[in-house]
Specification:
This protein is an all-alpha fold. Helices cover about 70% and strands about 0% of the residues. It contains nine helices and no strands. Helix 2 crosses helix 8 and helix 4 crosses helix 6. The longest helix has 19 residues. The relative contact order is 0.21.
Length: about 140
């Protein structure tokens, strides 16, 4: 996704609950497609940050998957800010990550998109895996939850 597209996308969903964005992914794809989407997001992650990817995902899952408050109140815009802040903690030595946190839509790059997409895809996969996780996140997979 090009930077302008990501900025436009975030602006179009910024006030939506983030859990609804994740729920939409869970409802529209099966487990295989969600796993494929996560692998694709990981593959597109910037090469120089690939060594940080496992720790980044682990940190995102540790911080957000078990935070009821995050799932209850976060809008997409707030989730973006929280995820980018976590990226600066997980990759503290990278100037580009810090820049993406300070100005997610600046400098013509799409690093903010990659930093947002990988955990979002991971959260969708986790939600699809168990009903208990979906319930905790406030996400419904189908009509009955």
């Amino acid at each position: 996704m090009a930077q302008d597209d990501f900025e436009q996308y975030i602006r179009s969903v910024e006030k939506r609950p983030y859990r609804k964005l994740v729920e939409e992914r869970v409802r529209s794809a099966g487990a295989t497609q969600l796993a494929d989407a996560l692998r694709a997001a990981e593959t597109q992650f910037p090469e120089h940050l690939q060594p940080y990817l496992p720790l980044y995902l682990e940190a995102a899952n540790d911080k957000f998957l078990c935070s009821r408050l995050f799932w209850q109140v976060s809008t997409c815009r707030e989730a973006l800010a929280n995820i980018l802040e976590l990226a600066t903690e997980a990759m503290p030595d990278d100037d580009e990550v810090r820049q993406a946190y300070r100005q997610p839509f600046a400098d013509g790059g799409d690093l903010a998109h990659h930093l947002f997409e990988v955990p979002t895809a991971s959260f969708a996969q986790a939600a699809a895996a168990t009903r208990r996780q979906r319930h905790f996140m406030g996400i419904k997979k189908g009509i009955w939850g």
